[in-house]
Write a structure and sequence with these properties.
Strand order of the largest sheet: 1-2
Number of helices: 3
Strand content: under 5%
Radius of gyration: 26 Å
Shape: rod-shaped
Helix content: 55-70%
Largest sheet: 2 strands, antiparallel
Oligomer: single chain
Structural class: mainly alpha
C-alpha cells in the first residue's frame, strides 16, 4: 500500500551523504593542491605563480641591487614583453 515507491528517507539520506563526501573531497584537493592560475599572456605554472612574473621579479631584484643599468633593465623588460 504505497510502501516501496520512491527512494524514501533512507535513500535521500545516503544521497545527501554521498554529495557531502564529494564536496569535502573537492575542497580538500583544492586547498592542498594550491590550484593552477592562468593569466592571459603568461605560462601556466602549478601553485599559482606565473613564469613571466617570476622573471620580472628576478629582473627587478637585479636592477635594485645595481647589477643592471637602466638601459639594460629596459631592454630586458622589452624582451620579456613587460615594458612599462
Amino acid at each position: 500500500m504505497g510502501y516501496g515507491t520512491g527512494m524514501g528517507w533512507g535513500g535521500i539520506f545516503w544521497l545527501l551523504m554521498l554529495i557531502g563526501i564529494v564536496l569535502v573531497i573537492v575542497v580538500v584537493v583544492r586547498a592542498v593542491g594550491g590550484g593552477v592560475r592562468r593569466d592571459a599572456d603568461s605560462t601556466r605554472v602549478p601553485g599559482g605563480r606565473t613564469g613571466r612574473s617570476r622573471a620580472r621579479e628576478v629582473l627587478d631584484e637585479r636592477y635594485a641591487r645595481g647589477e643592471l643599468t637602466t638601459e639594460e633593465y629596459r631592454e630586458r623588460l622589452t624582451a620579456l614583453g613587460e615594458n612599462e
